[in-house]
Amino acid sequence: MGQQALSKNKPGLLEKYFTGESMDYRQIVALFIPILIDQLFVIGLNLVNTAMVSSYGVAAISAVNMVDSLNIFLMQVFIALATGGTVVVAQYKGSGNGSMVSRSSASSVTIVSLVALVIGAIVVAFHNPILHLLFGTAEADVMANARTYLIGSGISFGGAGIVQAVCGALRGTGKTRASLALSLITNISYVALNGVFIYLLGMGVTGMTIAVNIARYLGAACSIFYLIRMETTMGLRIADFFRVQVSMLKKIMFIGLPFAAEQMFFNGGKLLTQIFIVSLGTYAIATNAIGNTIAGLAQIPSGALSLTIVTVVGQCMGRRNIQDARKFVKSFIVLSSLSLLAMALILLPLFHPLVSLFNPPDEIVHDLFILTVINFAFQVPLWSISFITPAALRAAGDSKFTSIVSMLTMWLFRVVLGYILGIMMGYGIIGVWLAMNCEWGVRGAIFLWRYRGSKWYAHRVID
């Protein structure tokens, strides 16, 4: 009888590892599930988009992948600022200051939108010099498709920035269901429109650029409508988006600017490795594009966890509960690694059916399989410490350290080692990816060392 009572009182795994004084496992699951669904749709729809455009040949998929490496580099700037907004909103939410939650949300949307519009205008104005500087060695048909896609992408940045800022603010308050709904409106409409413009109307890459603009600005309109008309607890009006307090701007920039600098250098390194890959030929570009899509599928649960930890740790720090923050970081890292292992075991047997969706040339399938196996082997132990840990440190305000480490390891290991292994030693695309895996390990080890100390939670983001 005593043993039976003891077993009833014994906490389950979720309660043991994902419950603290700041929040319990039910709240964390409620945060995580919508973000997971969002990531499933984002990555899954990206796979469908890549498969659709691949029907127009290797030149089309190579052009889209080439420009997307540049798009990611540029978009990460305003996504980083949106993350700064998420952290500030989450900490005000944790401290119970409702009026500052509203002000920080409005300020984040305004800042991110302006930055996105400026970046988009620069891309459209200077698309030719940018393409020739970065990808001048690409073949003529690849470059023609890339030009069309880059102009269309630049025009769409304003819409993407608004969606990112609003979703980031909503995640900070813990309203991940609303964030999911807005993300789904954007991404599902993008895929549906791609089906119309690419398949039904036969417009290829041009159709893809029209689809992305309609989808992103539709998502932006729905995002602003939601904040003003449906999110009544914030009490926001259109006029609030035109008033940015300097003190609030500083708080968001304290997190966002170092992260933006990190993302520019980090994705600049990825862009440089893309230039290495372009020099290896069109087949290498296609191998990299398809490999990235498969890797993205494996990282869906872990990517959702890395977004969730920002809100969780942000709210813990708003309450100044360090013990909970430490506990949740450790639990998230372990869970993320287990999810990567599970996804690898699911996806490897499905490799050939998955790859067949992209209509790849027979010559690249073997290299693609080797690339996938190597990447899965490395990402199970290394990805989580390299991405979950810095997301948690940043949510506590430790943005400068995480940014400096990410920039240095990217350039010293992924770029330099990628060039040595991929180009100088002749290992090609596999050498470039091996360098990326090594960078995960070095970066993750440094972040774990930081997490074990006390400096990462010594910052004060909010008053």
Model description:
The chain is mainly alpha-helical and 463 residues long. 85% of the residues lie in helices and 0% in strands. It has 17 helices and no strands. The protein has helices at residues 2-9, 13-18, 25-54, 58-95, 98-125, 127-135, 140-173, 176-200, 204-230, 246-279, 282-298, 300-318, 322-347, 351-356, 362-395, 399-424, 428-452. Helix 10 (246-279) packs across helix 11, helix 12 packs antiparallel against helix 13 (322-347) and helix 15 (362-395) runs parallel beside helix 17. Mean pLDDT is 81; it is low at 1-8.
Total count of helical runs of at least 4 residues: 17
Radius of gyration: 22 Å
The helix/strand order is HHHHHHHHHHHHHHHHH
Shape type: globular
Instruction: Round the mean pLDDT to the nearest integer and report it.
Output: 81
Strand content: under 5%
Structural class: mainly alpha
Q: Ends: how far apart?
A: 52 Å
State the low-pLDDT regions, or none. 1-8
| Helix coverage percent | over 70%
Q: Count all strands and give the number.
A: 0
Most strands sheet: none
Name the descriptors.
single chain; 463 residues; mainly alpha; 17 helices; globular; disordered N terminus
Summarize this entry quickly:
Helix content is 85%, strand content 0%.
